[in-house]
Structure formats: C-alpha cells, structure tokens
Amino acid sequence: MVNSPERAAFSTDPPPELDGVLCRALAATSVPVAIIDAQRLVVHWINRAYEQQLGYRLEDAIGLSRELVAEEERGGPASLRMAEAARVGRSTQERVTMRRGDGTTFPCVVRLDPVRDDAGEVRFAVAALQDLTQQLTHEAEQEAVVEMERRERRSVGLIMQVSDMLMEFDDGMGQLREIAALLQRSVVGWAAFYLNDGGLRTADEHHGRPPSGRGSRHGTDYRAEDSLDPRPPAPPDAVQALLDGDADGPVELDLTREYAPASASAWLRRHVDVPADPSTGRHPDAVVVVRVPGRRRTLGVLVVVPRRGEGLSGLEPADATLLELTVRRVGLAVDNARLYGREHHLAETLQRAMLPQQAEVDGLDVWTYYAPNSENVQVGGDWYDVLQIAPEVVGVVIGDVVGHDVEAAATMGQLRSVVRSYTYDITTPGQVLDRVDQLVAGMTIPRSASLVHSTLTRSGEGWRVEWSRAGHLPLIHVRGGRVEQLRDAGGALIGFGGHGRSTGRLDLDPGDVLVYYTDGLIERRDRGLRDGIAALSRVASGVTAHDAAGIGEELLSRLADHPEDDVAVVVVRVPDPRDTLEHDRSPRRRRWSLPSEPASIARARHAVIRTCQAWEMPDASNAELVVSELVANAVLHGYGHVSLQLYDTGDGLRIEVEDGNPAPPIATDGHPGRVGGFGMQIVERLADWGWRQSARGKVVWAKVRPGALPAARTRPE
After folding, report:
1. DSSP label at residue 664
2. What angle do CA 550, 551, 556 make, to 5 degrees?
3. 688 phi and psi, to 5 degrees?
4. Do the Cβ atoms of 82 and 112 come closer than 8 Å?
C-alpha cells in the first residue's frame, strides 16, 4: 500500500491477522478519510470515498495541504484552529468549505483526530469529511417554505386590512391614503393613489381636473409640422395606455425623461412627489404604476417605489401579486361607491325636481319641509304638493311610496303628475282619488303608495277643508291648544280603492292649524305608528308659535331630531287678526335641505330673499350675498346634503349652513392667477361669523344685522 499508515497509528494494537483487514476497511469505508501529517498538515493517504468526493486521485492528493480548502477560507479561523489542534494532539471538528479537483467547492464538516505512536508522539491525524450540501439544501428549502408561508400570511393579513378599510368607502381619498400608508409600511418604499375622473387627480383635488391626454391615446399630440422638430420624439405614454385599457400589467415611469406636454405620463411625472431616500438623500429615477381596474374602465393608478430597487426591476413577484390584489379591491370599492352615488344622485335629483319650492298661497300661512333619511343617505318616495287651484281654492297633497330607491322616486313622480292633473279638473278629493285609482290600475305601477288629498276653500273670514285619505295617516287639526285627529274619509292604498271614496269636511276658524306628515316624522324602532301619532298630538297641543314655520320647526325639533325614514311635513295655518299682537312672541325659523350641487346656491339666495320679505327684515341684499357665499363653500368644498337654516333673532338674521366636511372654513386673500377665494372675506365684511363641529360635519353661521355693517370678527361657537 502506498504511504499506508504504520501499525502504531491505530488506537490499539490489533492482532497481526487483522492488521491488513483494518487497513482495507479504512480504505473501503464510505466516509471520505485522509491521513495527514499532524505538524505540516499535508496529505499522506486518502481512501476511495475521498477520491470520489473531492475528485483527486491518490497520487495527486499526496502532499496537498492548503489547496484542499476553498481560497476564501485559507488562513481563516477554522483552518488555524484545526492546525493548532493537530499540533497539540487534540481532537476537533470544524465547518469549512472544501475545494474539489475541478475547482468547485462544497460545504462540509471536518473531524480531525490525532494518532499517537508507541511513544505517545503525534505524527499523524485522521481527517474524516461529512458533506453538508444535501443538508444545507434541505434547510434552505425549508427556510424558503417558511418564508413563503410567512409572506402569504402577511399578504392575507394586508388584504384583510385593505378590505376592512374599504367596507365603508365613500369615494373619498381618505381611505385610499390610509391604504397607501399601509402598503408603504409593509410592502413598498412609497405609495400613492391617483383617481381617473376624465383625467388623473391627486388626493387633494376634489374638483379641479388636470389634463389627461384624451384625444391622444399615448400622449403624442404633436401636429404634422412637429415632425421637423429637431428634438427627439417623446417616449410612448405608458400611463395613458393603462388608463385606456391598452395595458394591464404594471408599467415603469422614468422620472428623468420628458413626455408630451398634454400626456398623462407628463402630468403624473410632475405630480408624483416621492421623498428622498433618507440614507442617500437622492430621489428615485423611476416609479412603478399599477392600474386600478373598474368594471368597464380604469378608475385610476397606484404609484409605488419598490424597496429593493427602482422601477420594475425592484418589484418582487410576490409584492406585485399583493399590489394587484389590492388595486382590484380598491377598484371594486370605488366602482361600487360611484355607482351608488350616481343612483342616489339620480333618485334625489328626480325627487327634488318634483317637489315644489316653498309654497306661497293667498290667504293662508303655509310651511313645507322635506328631507331624505340622512342617517343612511337613502332616497324614498315621500312627497308633498301645495297648489293654488283658483284664487279661493288651494290644494294640499302629501304621500308616501314604499321603498328607498330610484323606482320609489319614479313611482312618486308618476303619482304626483296624475294627482296634479286631476286636482285642477275636480275639486272634490274623494272623486280625485277615484279617478287616480282607475288610472293607476291600468298603469302597472310597481310600488304601493298612500296619500292624503285635500282642498281648502275660502268661506267668509275662514276656510273649509275637504279631504280624502288613501291608506295614509290622519291629519292633525289644532284649535286653541286642542288637537283632533281627522280619521274620517279613510280608505285603501292607491290602486286598491275601487269606487266611491268618501270625502271629509271641516270648517276652519282663524288660528286653526292643519298638519300633514309622513311616517318618518313619528315612527321609530322603539315606537309604533299609534304611539307616534299620540306623541305628535301631544307636541302639537303644546306649540307656542303663532306662524306655520314656527309650528313646523317646533314639531321637527321635538319629533325628528334623528329620523329613521324620509320626512315630509306641511303645516297650514289660517291667519288670525290677532297675529300682529303676538308677532314678537312667536319664534321664527326656516330650514331647507339642499342637494350638494351648484343649483342649490341660487335656491338658497331665493329662499333668503323670500324669507326676509315675509319677516319684513331690511337689508335682504346683504343676507343674500352672505348665504350665497356660505352655500357655495358647502357645495364646492363639502360633501353630502347641505342644510340651510334661517333664524329671526330679534336684532337681525342668523344664517346657518351645515355640510358633511368637518374641516373649518378659511378666510384667504384669494387664489393667485385665478378667480375666487374671497368668499369668507365678503362674509366677514357683512356679518359676524363662526363655525362649530356637528354630528354630520360642521356648521358655519353668520349673523347679519340690519343697518350699518358690523366690524368683522371670527370666533368659534
């Protein structure tokens, strides 16, 4: 045997007949084994397993030392510890990277044990190798599985948080900013949403619409002569391709390049405000733009900066999948909110278009009120009508269609038109409802409805009221603090009356009051209709106001602070000659619920002028200008319904405008380069004003005093 170890190298002296057997066993074992010089650490002998593992033949391995260890570990701590252990004759075990004969490396554990001769000297050491490649591969696979599970759990958790944030999405940017902040904390280095409303807009742009590149699908809107321009052509508008649906996957937007001026990429490049990296102080050169899909069109984009690099190269597949799931949920929430908003706006616009303005009739004091259910922002089929049929005849109708949707509002519109048309031809309410029953039976109206139709006819100094009820609540008649429920002339719902509806009659004296109402005024979850009517009767009997508006406001304040349904109320009062003596003791207040649209500004101005004339208050023009600015601010900068209330304070007119935006109004010096921004300065000049928080958002109030203009001041209330 070439360079075989001496007999004395074995731990015990074997019998002579086993000496050769032990050497052959050492050579045949499957564990790579080498016998090395203990002092110089050079190889003296290797077995067959060592040859196969490291790729060295026996004659090539003899004399090797440092060459067997990977270059980066030669002279390292593990090599030095093995050399020291071999020199002093101590067993050791180290993890090192070995070098094969072909130059490749592999991790292994080297077990080094000294071999002493008969004199106890250590001349040789046995080195046994254990290949860790398979073990480390298995551990790496296990770690990869654990990491994948961890990322999946994180992704599921993030998607659940996103879903929770979107449960009450109202098409505002607040939730989107929260979702972007969540992604920034967990997945990416920076994130922001931009919605597409005929053009991209940032989180703070609710009304302005930036250029979108429409008319040029990819933003290259140059004229033909631009082909002679020596400048290089602008790159394709990848962002517009996303908005148009021509691209689905994420795209990279190079922030260092110039794009066509009217393109979506150019707009986004200008408005993406990515903060600098705190460690380097530099801004990224590229961002990733992800499409936010809707049902039929792209609703916006999500812009992110990956954590592991810039652009698409820094976005890992798992993070890309998470972003895709997020934008799909965001798109569905935005789409649902807009669909609901459009349906609600359509129904409310239809309903309000069919309701009359504040009624003004000769010889009667009339106050009307309507508001949809503000808690659930629903739209229903409640309506009222006040008609001057003839100089001595006034018609009053109030009704309620079952439901809170567009169909209910459409049904209300049909019924209102039918009732109006018959009212001008027939003055007896029972006969009008008979004709309505006949027509409705042939119209296949999908919703049932109740209503009260009445006519008031002048009779000497007083009036006579005639009425007929089709499944509706009884009218309330108040005379001198005594309340009577007019339950006569009742019948089935509209369309189910058959023939011969009856008509009730009552002579009204000066000072008498009639209250028409729908169930939203009195019904609650903890109070049925019967108890609600009793409560209305008690409140009506104790009303101290001496005008229809004051009576109506007292009823609303006592009964409809938190309505659970739509509310429609009409209060009719027969004027009393003694009213002038009681004028100063009668509180006067008016309120209107207006949709958040520009047309409400003109309606508010008209309401203030009419009210100031009715209350004989001077300087109506000042009040008109103040209410115009307050309602304009509520429409432009607020959201939800706009509530307008007017109060006669005795020394002036108090105006209150409520909207759903809790942010306070700000008096500015105007907006440079454009018209506007002076509204609150006008209010300051004409009135004392302030604001306060409310359950819905905020109330901005202003008190306009008659005579000289007051010194402007602002204070919270």
Report:
1. P
2. 95
3. -75, 140
4. yes
Amino acid 178: pLDDT: 84
- Joined together, the tokens standing for residue 366 give 């009339």
Instruction: Residue 39: name the closest of 115, 101, 108 by CA.
Output: 115
CA angle, 339 as apex, 336 and 345 as ends, to 5°? 135
pLDDT value of position 484:
95
First and final C-alpha spacing in the chain: 106
Task: Please indicate, yes or no, if residue 349 is contained in any of the structural domains.
Answer: no
* 285 and 165 both lie in a single domain: yes
Alpha carbon separation from 697 to 472, 592, 661 (Å, rounded) = 35, 17, 5
Place of tokens 């018609």: 395
183 CB contacts (<8 Å, ≥6 apart)? 158, 191, 304, 323, 326
- Which residue, 432, 472, 437, is CA-closest to 451? 472
Please report, rounded to a whole number, the percentage of residues in the chain having pLDDT higher than 90. Answer: 12
Would you give the distance in Å from CA 651 to the centre of its chain?
44
Ranges 10-19, 394-403, 538-547, 549-558: which has the least confidence:
10-19
Q: Which amino acid is at 550?
A: G
Least confident range from 26-30, 293-297, 570-574: namely 26-30
Confidence of residue 534 (pLDDT cuts 50, 70, 90): very high
Q: Which domain holds residue 582?
A: 355-586
**Residue pair 512/477 in contact by the 8 Å Cβ criterion:** yes
Q: Is the alpha carbon torsion for 120, 126, 127, 129 positive or negative?
A: negative
In whole angstroms, give the CA distance from residue 397 to residue 574: 17
Last residue of a domain, one of 343, 371, 401: 343
Query: What is the CA 271 to chain-centroid distance, rounded?
Result: 21
Q: Of 343, 368, 383, which one is at a domain's C-terminal end? A: 343
Phi, psi of 3 (to 5 degrees): 50, 35
Residue type, 22: L
Whether the CB-CB separation of 175 and 337 falls below 8 Å is answered with: no
Question: What is the sign of the dihedral through the CA atoms of 178, 179, 185 and 189?
Answer: negative
Between CA 18 and CA 20 the distance in angstroms is 6
Tell whether 658 and 544 lie within a shared domain. no
